[in-house]
From TrEMBL:
The keyword Signal does not apply. Pfam families: Sigma54_AID, Sigma54_CBD, Sigma54_DBD. It comes from Maridesulfovibrio salexigens (strain ATCC 14822 / DSM 2638 / NCIMB 8403 / VKM B-1763). GO terms for cellular component: DNA-directed RNA polymerase complex. It comes from the Bacteria. This is RNA polymerase, sigma 54 subunit, RpoN. InterPro entries: RNA_pol_sigma_54, RNA_pol_sigma_54_core-bd, RNA_pol_sigma_54_DNA-bd, RpoN_core-bd_sf. Residues 109-297 form the RNA polymerase sigma factor 54 core-binding domain. Belongs to the sigma-54 factor family. Residues 50-73 are annotated as: Disordered. Signal peptide: none annotated. Residues 63-73 have a biased composition (Low complexity). Keywords: DNA-binding, DNA-directed RNA polymerase, Nucleotidyltransferase, Sigma factor, Transcription, Transcription regulation, Transferase.
Amino acid sequence: MGLELRQQLKLTQQLVMTPQLQQAIKLLQLSRLELVDTVHQELMENPILEEAEAQERTDSPDADAGTATAEEAQISKEAEWENYLGEFSSTSKQSASRESESYEEGTSFEARLTKSASLEGHLHWQMSLSDFTEKDIAIGECLIGNLSSGGFLRIDLEDVCETCYAEIEDVEKVLHRIQRFDPVGVAARTPQECLLIQLEALKLDDDPILVSLVRDHLDDLEKKRYKPLARKFKLSMEDLKSYLDLMQTLDPLPGASFSSGDSFYVSPDAYVYEYDGDFVIVLNEDGLPKLQMNAFYVETLESTKGDDKEYFQDKMRSAQWLMKSLYQRQRTLYKVLESIVRFQREFFAHGVTKLKPLILKEVAEDIEMHESTVSRITTNKYVSTPHGIYELKFFFNSALGLDDGSQVGSESVKATIKKLIGEEDGKKPLSDEKIAEILKEKLEVNIARRTVAKYRTAMGILSSSKRKKVF
């Protein structure tokens, strides 16, 4: 068989993810705070971009049309860049003044923050004020560095001895002192030890019944075996209740009140408020710069030659695409919010119990966009409503059938379950089966017992046996 070379022409179509398209998709997925950081970073790196002055924001979009290049003029026809954020508001002319109101506090972001003390830092501070020797400080640092988020010691004392080259007696002495630091009971090895240390600090460790309940019967108390305990200690149920009330004043997790992790701050991307019987959408523009082309570079671009001209042309295209992508992002976000408000109007009027079932496809068809676009624009986005701040994903929930053939949202059913449990008799808590019957009888919701159990567990609510109150 011979080998030969041939030339062949072939016409094909394929989708190429250009860097500009990747940037547009990335902007859709960014949260508001991430978007602000991205825009500020681009302002620093791209000399063509600059932030518009406050007085220029009310100027006509065509004010600088005479200095614009042909490419810039073409893009300006597609959108008014001076108003690429401000036009996205459904506020009527009568309420236009409300758009200028500040929806967040006027103070700076930094002025409203303070560094929260960590458990380790708090204990180190107390140790530095105590009369510890250098050896004791080394042992104490090893102990403090091996505490859990709840304040319990996660290392064996023998390992501390090996690490610090210390005797077990010295380690136990330092541990004893640290356990009496604030919060009392920190660095305990078991819950029993933690509570016993607190009893000692409160001078309640001279009561043998109380000490025995803490040391030997925490499991019985957790499982609410009150009658056998009352018989064992020859107590009435009222006396046993007084002991339990006293124990409930103790802190089983002394380190939980200290935050050692990073805080997660939420800034709403939009506000929905009621005005004249209708719901108004205002996008959150606070901190997001108004972008415009630098007039100096635009004017001198034509006279620039060589590599400099290629560089500035590339930066201009990048700036124009960023402005277009930001405009498209805000436009898409507004259209999605407008559709959500239409579908979930009862929620915005009455609260979470009126939340309807909704899927991405319904919103996508309503605004004539792809489901993936709706999914991206609702990721890490929050909206401030008359009933609180919610993630946009919250409004998309599954459906449960009603007897009349209609449907109700799962989040609405969860809220109803939470309300029923909150109003129940503590001595006779509602079982999952009973809750399913109530939903069936009163609300005509077709729901199985296992579904009630799944929703209850997802909300962090205990079972009826663990919610039962004996006293």
